[in-house]
Design a protein that fits this description.
Layout: E1 7-9, H1 39-58, E2 65-69, E3 83-89, E4 94-100, E5 110-117, E6 136-142, E7 148-152, H2 155-159, E8 165-171, E9 178-184, H3 187-210, H4 225-239, H5 263-266, H6 300-306, E10 309-311, E11 330-332, H7 355-366, H8 384-395, H9 428-437, E12 463-464, H10 468-474, E13 490-491, E14 502-503, E15 509-510, H11 521-531, H12 536-539, H13 546-549, H14 553-556, H15 560-572
Parallel strand pairs: 1-6
Antiparallel strand pairs: 2-3, 3-4, 4-7, 5-6, 5-8, 8-9, 10-11, 12-13, 14-15
Helix pairs in contact: 1-3, 1-4, 4-8, 7-8, 9-15, 11-15
């Protein structure tokens, strides 16, 4: 981020007063140059545009645009469990902030809430640049101890200031301001807002033409920004090394393997594949089970034998005396990336509030040349425009490709010519759907549009401890304990497009290489995941013990036929 910087300080008002100071800055659209869009990118970009506009209007996002705030491996100097949310009303200029879990500040220090407008330039990155030619900063002032803040500003200021990032900064005398937690404004809201404003301009043009008024500007027509972003994002995802060790996003999220990898796929790769860049490389040492706090890049054994990837979810800070990590890494399977538009926050432990923060953290974690992880030396932090393009591409990945998530009624994924309404209980997938959706069964937790943990009424996401980590630890699946969201809970995954061999964050279910007689390999591996929910491990887990251990009795009592039926249902909704 390099260019002229201005810092605007807004006096905070707890009452509904409006600040009328003007903001003198050029609005930065922060978009990439149009790329070459292949037919897939055009089709998915147009669908993304339509979905964004529908979501923006139906959820009234112009008056309540959210920016979640979390720890970022790429930008936070120290690990913190603090989190929060900013909500912007672009119509009134009202800004609401709520933050929880911030550590006490030393005397003389304060937490401030900043809006950051990225300014492209030759050395532009998404990191906040406070040099003389750095970013535009809108300082909303000091957060009170409660973490709750309300500000009201002139809406015209927001028209001339693109909020690319919101950040809680620790400001101390004589020290550079420190990024504590933050988030990026999703392209869903940026593009949705642009579309809304374009419609307003179009309506005004139509009205002016009725009055015989000559418009002062020409209508550009429907935006092709999502198409361009998807095309650019696909190229970055596949080829972007960001000045690092040679890995790209697609090194682990293989587009030819359902955006994931497993040990069987890994065994087919040639030795020179970027996945193995750490082997024999002293700058990227192997993990030592005997010393898990010793900084490491990957575990060759766990990667090649189990498909597990090393993640420093809680940061890479080291003890100043010993050089050891303050918190050990965890090992996780590579998740598939389908239907991410419905599953925020992201990561198995819901660690990342938005896909841009998630992508920047992935570059920091997996692309570095050395464990020093110095931006500009070991890798290049992506630019805001690049992060937006990566977000667009990831949001465009849908399974099924047509975005039809209906599982009941006419036109559903279970509909056939002979059973258009999908009600024939002679079909195992129909019986499985009925069992899945029954009270106190699978659907009690998998309740969102894509059967993730999103509450369809409140939009809140559900994290649970279902005993998967304890199950994996009991069988030595991983050498370190993964406590998920820091309370032992993990995010409930979506269930469409499960065309893979491994299930759960640690890959504890599945992994079969031979199919059951008369069954597909997908069915075989899915079945082992379904069967887990009748196991003692689930029954004895915190989730299994809800309501004195009776809530999920239907799962505990599943017959082999019911397990087969639920598996058939999941296999049916996993088709491309």
């Amino acid at each position: 981020m390099t260019a002229r910087r201005r810092i605007f300080t807004i006096v905070l008002l707890t009452l509904a007063a409006t600040i009328g100071a003007s903001l003198v800055s050029r609005r930065n659209p922060n978009s990439l140059e149009p790329g070459i869009a292949d037919p897939w990118s055009i089709r998915q970009g147009e669908k993304l545009q339509s979905w964004i506009e529908t979501e923006y209007e139906s959820q009234h996002l112009y008056s309540q645009t959210p920016i979640p705030l979390t720890f970022s491996r790429a930008f936070s100097e120290h690990f913190t469990r603090a989190s929060g949310k900013v909500q912007i009303n672009f119509g009134t200029g009202s800004i609401q902030v709520s933050v929880n879990g911030l550590d006490p500040n030393p005397a003389g220090s304060a937490y401030q809430l900043w809006f950051v407008e990225d300014v492209p330039g030759p050395n532009n990155t998404a990191a906040i640049d406070l040099e003389s030619n750095g970013d535009h900063i809108l300082n909303l002032g000091t957060l009170p101890e409660s973490g709750a803040l309300m500000a009201n500003i002139d809406p015209r200021q927001l028209e001339n200031f693109e909020v690319n990032m919101a950040a809680v900064m620790r400001v101390s005398p004589g020290r550079k301001p420190e990024f504590v937690i933050g988030g990026m404004q999703s392209i869903r809201y940026l593009i949705g807002r642009e579309a809304k404003l374009e419609k307003s301009r179009t309506n005004r043009l139509s009205f002016d033409s009725l009055l015989g008024v000559t418009p002062a500007f020409a209508q550009n027509g429907k935006s092709n920004k999502p198409v361009s972003l998807v095309a650019q994002g696909k190229d970055l995802f596949t080829n972007g090394t960001f000045g690092g060790n040679g890995r790209t996003c697609a090194t682990c999220h293989r587009l030819d393997f359902e955006t994931t990898i497993d040990s069987t796929f890994i065994s087919t790769l040639l030795p020179g594949d970027p996945l193995f860049v750490f082997i024999g490389n002293q700058n990227l040492p192997d993990f030592s089970e005997a010393d898990p706090l010793q900084p490491a890049f990957e575990s060759r054994f766990l990667m090649t034998s189990k498909g597990l990837i090393l993640e420093n979810i809680d940061g890479t800070e080291r003890d100043s005396a010993t050089g050891k990590l303050l918190r050990p890494p965890v090992f996780r399977m590579t998740p598939a990336l389908f239907n991410l538009s419905f599953t925020e926050p992201y990561g198995d432990s819901a660690c990342c509030a938005d896909l841009q923060i998630f992508s920047a953290g992935a570059v920091f974690q997996h692309f570095t040349k050395t464990l020093n992880r110095v931006a500009g030396v070991d890798f290049q932090t992506p630019t805001t425009a690049q992060l937006q393009a990566l977000e667009a591409f990831q949001l465009s990945l849908s399974s099924p490709l047509n975005g039809n998530f209906k599982v009941s009624g006419r036109g559903s994924l279970l509909s056939t010519k002979s059973d258009a309404l999908a009600t024939d209980t002679n079909r195992p997938e129909v019986r499985g759907r009925n069992f899945f959706l029954a009270a106190n069964s699978c659907g009690a937790c998998h309740q969102g549009t894509v059967h993730d943990g999103t509450n369809p009424v409140t939009g809140a996401t559900l994290n649970l401890d279902t005993g998967v980590e304890a199950f994996g630890q009991r069988f030595g699946r991983t050498p370190t304990l993964d406590d998920g969201d820091n309370t032992g809970k993990f995010q409930i995954p979506q269930l469409f497009g499960l065309r893979k061999t491994h299930f759960f964050h640690n890959g504890a279910a599945g992994n079969n290489t031979t199919a059951l007689p008369g069954r597909s390999l997908l069915f075989t591996n899915l079945r082992s995941a379904v069967e887990f929910y009748k196991s003692p491990d689930f029954r004895q887990s915190p989730t299994g013990q809800e309501i004195n251990g009776t809530r999920f009795q239907a799962l505990f009592d599943m017959t082999d036929t019911q397990i087969d039926d639920v598996t058939a249902f999941l296999e049916a909704i996993s088709k491309p």
